[in-house]
Amino acid sequence: MGFSNIDIIIVAAYLLAIAVFGIISGGKQKSISDYFLGSKKIPWWAVCFAVVATETSTLTFISIPGVAYVTNLNFLQLTFGYILGRIIIAAVLLPAYYKGNVETAYTFLGNRFGKKTRSAASIVFMITRLFADGVRLYATAIPIKLITGIDYPSAIILTAIVTLLYTYIGGVRAVIWMDVVQMFIYLGGAISAVWVLTSQLPEGLATIFTMPNLNEKISLINTGFNLDFTSFLSTPYTLFSSVLGGMFLSMASHGTDQLIVQRLLATDSLKSSQKAIITSGVIVMFQFALFLLIGLLLYAFYNGTKMDANEVFPLYIINNMPSGISGLIIAGLLAAAMSTLAGSMNSLASAVMFDFYKPYFGKNNNPTSDVRISRFFTGLWCILLTSSAFIFMETPKTVVELALSIASFTYGGLLGTFLLGVLFKKPQQRDALIAFAAGIIVMIGVIYFTNIAWTWYTVIGSGVTVLVGNFAAAMIKTRKF
C-alpha cells in the first residue's frame, strides 16, 4: 500500500507519453484556423469526448465521491438538467453560431450587438477562467502532495509545463486528441478504484445494500415538497432546482463559455456539433454515477466514519490502494487536471487573438505571424494560470470556496446576453450592455446577501439579464429612458 517506485514510474511514463503524443497529434499549424479551430475537421465523437474531459477537473474526480460519502445520490439529479440544457444549445445557440461563421462564442455577440458587447463578454470570460481554473490547478496539487509527498509548487509547475508543451505546439487539435486519451485514463482510474474497493469489502458490491441507513444513502430523487418556500430555495439538490438549475448552468457553461464552444466549432458541420454536445451530456451522467458509486463504496468501506468530503478519496488512495493502482489513479488525477488546463490555455489565447488582437492590431498579419503570436498568448496564459494557482496556495479556505463559485457571478449575465441576441430582435448594444451589467450586479447581491442555493444562480442571473435588456429596449424606443 502507499505510493511506491512502481507508481512513480507509471506517472513519469504517463507524463512523457502525453507530452510526446500530444505534440505528434497536433500536426503542423499553418494558420490560426489550424491552431484554434483544427481547420474544422475534428470528428464529432472526438469533440464529444473532449467536452467531457474538459469539464471534468480534479475537483470533480475528488469531490463527487465525497458528496456521496457525506450525503446521498441527489447530486445526480443535476445531470438530468445537463442533458436538457445541451439539447437547447443544439437547437438554439449552435445554429446561430454556424449561421454567423464565428471564431469564438463572443464573435456572435459582436455580429448581433457590436464590438463593445463582444469585448465585454470576452473580458468577463477571461477573468472567470483565470481565477476558476487557477483554483482547479491548485486543487490538483492537494491530492498529489498528500499521495506523493512533493510540495504544492512542484505539483503545479509540473502539471503546467507538461500541458503547455503539447498545447503550445499542437494547438486545439492536440488539446482535443489528448482530451480523448485523458478521458479514458481518468475513467480507467475511477473504474480501477471501484474494482479495488469492491474486492476489499466483505460482501463485495452487495455490501452497500447492508448499510443500516440504506434508503437515505441511495436516495436519488428529492422532490422537496416537504420544505417551506425559504428552505426550498436554499436547498441545492431538490428535483426542481437540480433540473432547472442544471439546465441553465449547462446552457451557460457549454453554450456561452469559449472553453467549450471552441471545441464545438472545431467540427465540420452544425449536425456534427449538435451530436457532440448532446452525447456529451449522456456520458457525463454515467460518469457522475460512477464517481458517486465510489463515494458509496467508500462509505461502506469506512463504515460511515465522519470524514472531510474532499479528503476521503485521497486518503483511501494513500492508505489502501495497491502499488501500481495508485500510480494509475494519480495519472487519472493529472489527466483530469491537464485536460481542463489545456483547454483553458488554448481557449483564452483564442479569445485574445480573435476578439482583440486581430480586429485591432493584426488585420494585415500573414498566417505565420498569427500562429507565432497565438503561441505567445498560449504561453502567457500558462504563466497567468500558474500564478493564479500560487495565489490560492496562500488564501484562506473561505476565499477559495468563493473562487470556486466565480462562474456563478458571471454565467447568468453571459447566458442572458446570448439569449437576448438569439431570441429577441429589439434589444441593441446599449440594452445588452446594461442588461449584462445588471445580471452580474444582481448576482453579487444574491450570492453575498441571501441563502439561495447555488443551483438557482444561473437561472436568476440570466432571467434578470433578459428582463432588463427587454425593458431597456422598450424604454429607449418610447424615449422614456
Notes on the structure:
It is a single chain. The protein is mainly α and 481 residues long. It folds into two domains: 5-403, Sodium/glucose cotransporter; 405-481, no CATH class. The chain has 20 helices and no strands. The chain has helices at 5-26, 32-37, 44-55, 58-70, 77-100, 105-112, 115-148, 152-200, 214-217, 229-234, 239-255, 258-264, 270-301, 312-320, 325-360, 367-393, 397-404, 406-423, 429-449, 457-477. Helix 3 (44-55) packs antiparallel against helix 12 (258-264) and helix 3 crosses helix 13 (270-301). The longest helix is centred in the middle third of the chain and has 49 residues, at 152-200. It is globular, with a radius of gyration of 22 Å. The N and C termini lie far apart (69 Å).
Please give the radius of gyration in angstroms: 22 Å
Number of helices: 20
Structural class: mainly alpha
Strand content: under 5%
- Please name the CATH topology of the largest domain: Sodium/glucose cotransporter
The CATH architecture assignment of the largest domain turns out to be: Up-down Bundle
Low-confidence stretches are 397-402
Write out the CATH superfamily name of the largest domain.
Sodium/glucose cotransporter
Major sheet, described briefly?
none
Distance between the termini: 69 Å
Q: Compute the average pLDDT.
A: 88
Number of domains: 2
Helix proportion: over 70%
What is the β-strand count? 0
What is the H/E order? HHHHHHHHHHHHHHHHHHHH
CATH class label of the largest domain: Mainly Alpha
Shape from CA axes? globular
